[in-house]
Amino acid sequence: MRKRVVLAKPFSLEDEKDSEHTPPNLIQRILSLFKNVRPGSDLTNFQLPPQMNLPRSQLQCYGEMVYSFSGHDLLGECSRRDQPIERLKSMVTWYISTLRPLIFGMAPYNPVIGETHHVSNRHINVLVEQISHHPPVSALHATHEKENIDVMLCQYFTPKFRGTYVEVEVKGKRVVKLLNQKETYEMNQPKLLMTFLPATGAHWVGKIMIKCPETGLEAELQLLADSFFSRFTGNNKRSIKGKIFESSSRKQLYEIFGNWDRTVTAKNLKTGELEVIYKASENTAKLKTPIVKNLQEVSESESAMVWSEVSEGIMRNDWEKARQGKRDLEEKQRESLRQRKSFGQSWIPKHFSVTRAGKDWDCVPLQPTVPRAPIIVPL
């Protein structure tokens, strides 16, 4: 019997208000999971109980960065701008919009190999595939039909336990191509910190670089780690600062500052003019749950179908159903791996060509554009 497609609402700024205070029993539960884990240990294959899972796969979270927004089409705006400096500034705005608040102590499912996620929102079509399980590597391809934009992401991460926090280093890079402008923008990704002491919290931190070789312009953004005092009080400021400059001369053109979950401003250093380039309340405050437009076209590998039993259990607080769903899925994956090994076969992704050099991964989509999806974000 075909499984149900269980779709959960993307986590938004409105939902965050309900998760500002961490219950003491949740902190104790989390710390108990790490009681036998040494500081510095790699947590890549660490499994959480269903009570600490969000009812969605990590693939869905990656896809939501691109297709889930409630305001303007910020990705399309990158190509609509006339001047190179304006396009880079728009690219900075779009990147900031992909940063989303996180819930401390809650995490999405670790995707299984071969799992996919395919969703469309107006002119944007997004396809994500889990191309490796050990180590976990995800590939994303998105295309903007109207503005002829191509987004490619090949992402893998290494979470490590540091005693009072977990540090997640996100490797791989994003590449956005404005094909009408013949411009390529390369960008890296920040780290994630899950802190236990002196206060609980989930924070994006680190340096982000956005470069365009064709225009000779760059942006450098810094997601600031909270001070000791703010961590102690639990006040997460989510500050961002940075600059836009010429690559060759290092001449600074704009100063960027603000809070990525609220408002970000750009200051023109030549004229002194201030411009609000991003308002989170207009873009990520009221996110909509995707819907199934054509059930018959939904792939059996779709995340919402693969994890349907587990998600249904979590959303109904039926933890035994969620645990059994997880066990069944894990056993199915182990059996599939045993069969491949017995025939001397390796996993071949369906939608991407993959190359690996040491610990570095690179992915190229097999198709030039992403087709319209049977799952859509309602207008």
TrEMBL record:
The keyword Chloroplast does not apply. Pfam families: Oxysterol_BP. InterPro entries: OSBP_sf (IPR037239), Oxysterol-bd (IPR000648), Oxysterol-bd_CS (IPR018494). GO terms for molecular function: lipid binding. PROSITE patterns: OSBP (PS01013). One of its GO terms (biological process) is lipid transport. Keywords: Lipid transport, Lipid-binding, Transport. Transmembrane segments: none annotated. May be involved in the transport of sterols. Belongs to the OSBP family. This is Oxysterol-binding protein-related protein 4C. The lineage of its organism: Eukaryota, Viridiplantae, Streptophyta, Embryophyta, Tracheophyta.
